[in-house]
Amino acid sequence: MRTGIRNGLIITMIEGEAPYKGNILIEDDRIVELGVSVDISEVDQVIEGEGFTAMPGFINAHQHSPMSLLRAFSDDMKLMDWLDRKMLPAEANMTPEDIYWGSQLAMAEMIRSGTTCFADMYIQMGQIAEAVKSVGMRASLTRGLVFLQDDGGRRMSEAIDLVERWSGAADGRITTMIGPHSPYTCPPEPLKETIAYAESRKLPIHIHLAETKEEVVKIRDKYGVTPTEYLAHIGMFDRAHVLLAHAVHLTRKDIRLLHGMRGGIAHNPISNLKLGCGIAPVAECLRQGITVGLGTDGAGSATTLDMFETVRAAAWLQKLDYGDPTILPASHALGMGTLESAKLLCLDHEVGTLEAGKKADLILVDMRKPHLQPVHNIESLLAYAASGSDVDTVMVNGRLLMQGRKLLTINEDELYRQVRQRAERIVKGI
Ligand SMILES: CSC[C@H]1O[C@@H](n2cnc3c(O)ncnc32)[C@H](O)[C@@H]1O
Ligand SMILES: [Zn+2]
C-alpha cells in the first residue's frame, strides 16, 4: 500500500531542520521519502496536505490508560490520600473488561488529540494489549509492581507473562518494560529482583520517582537516603535503561547521580500541577544532559490526555520557575513530546521524527483556524496555541486511525455506552 501526503507544511522535528512545504511518500508501515519534489503520482491513496501541518505523532511517556474510567471521580485531594482512599479501592472493583474499555477510552482521546504512542503502567495488561492491538496505536506496556504485601510472586509472574506474550506483538507496535511502581512500594529485595530480570532480558524499567515531598520523607525515614539515591545504591541506573516518571523532588546530588544514565525522565507537568506536587527541575536536568520527555499520567489525576496542553504546561512552568522566558523554547518543548519521549521508550530508531526509513507515525494539524494564523513560527503555534482538537488526521504504522476527525478503528457510540455503565459500577460506594 502506497500513500502520498501532498503539499503539507512538514515539521520533521529533526534538530536543525527548518519546516518546509512538501510531499511525504509512505509505503506500508514506513516513510519512504519526504521533500519538496517527492513524486507521489503513483500511489494508492493521496491525502491532501494543503492547509495542514504534518508532524510526528506525540509520544505520551507516562500513562495509566484505564484510569480514564476514573476521570473527574475524585479531584482536589493529596496524592497519597487520593491513591489510598479513592484509586486503589476503585481499581479493586475493575474487571478485565473494564480495563479493556477504559484503555480504549484513553486511546480514543489520545488519537483525537494527536498521540500515536504511549507508555502504560497498570494491572491486567493483557487486556490493554488486546485493546492496543485492535485500535492500532503503538505502546510500551508495563505491569505495575507494588510489593507491599507478599502475593507469592503472582504480580511478578504477570509481569513476565506480559513480556513473553506481547513483546513485539501487533506487527511490532507493542513493546514491554518492567515496572516496579515506586521506591515507596518496592523494598530492596523485590526491587533487586526486578532489576536482575530487566537486565537479563535487556528490558527497560518504568518507575515513579520522587513525585511528592511525602515520598522523600518516607524514604529518608526508612533508608536514610533520597528516593533517587535509593534506586542508585541498588544499582538500577548502572544495570538498565530506566524511564523515571515525575522526578519532581531532586537534589543537586540526585541530578548528578542521574547524569549519564540510560533512559531519563518522563515529566508530567499537568498531573504535578493539579496534585500540587511541585515543579520538576527540568531545565537543570536538561543542562546535565539528562533526557526529559513528556507524559500526562492517568486521566484520574491529569483529567485530560492532551499532549499539546502538556507541551505548553512544561514550557510555561519552567519559564515561570526560573523567571526566564528563554529557558525552554517552543521547539525544545515540542521535541520533548516527540523525539525525547521516543528515547525514553527505546523507540527513537523507529519513531519521534519524520524521516525516511522510520515508521509512518504522524499527524496532520488543521491550520485553517483563527488561533493558528498567520504562520510566522510554526513551532510557536504548535506549542503555545494549538490543542488536540486541531488534529485532523492520525496515522500509526502507515495505517489511518483518524481522518477528518472521524475515528476509523473505534466505534465511539459503543465505547461511550460501555464506559458509562462500567464507570458507575466501579465507583459505587467509594
Ligand atoms: C500498580 S499499576 C500502577 C498504579 O499506579 C497508580 N498511580 C496512578 N497515578 C499515580 C501517581 O501519580 N503516582 C503514583 N501512583 C499512581 C495507579 O492508581 C495504579 O494503582
Ligand atoms: Zn503515574
TrEMBL record:
InterPro entries: Amidohydro-rel, Deaminase_MtaD/DadD, Metal-dep_hydrolase_composite, Metal_Hydrolase, MTA/SAH_deaminase. Catalyzes the deamination of 5-methylthioadenosine and S-adenosyl-L-homocysteine into 5-methylthioinosine and S-inosyl-L-homocysteine, respectively. Is also able to deaminate adenosine. The lineage of its organism: Bacteria, Bacillati, Bacillota, Bacilli, Bacillales. The keyword Metal-binding applies. It comes from Paenibacillus mendelii. Signal peptide: none annotated. CDD domains: ATZ_TRZ_like. Belongs to the metallo-dependent hydrolases superfamily. MTA/SAH deaminase family. SUPFAM superfamilies: Composite domain of metallo-dependent hydrolases, Metallo-dependent hydrolases. This is 5-methylthioadenosine/S-adenosylhomocysteine deaminase. Zn(2+) binds at H62, H64, H208, D297.
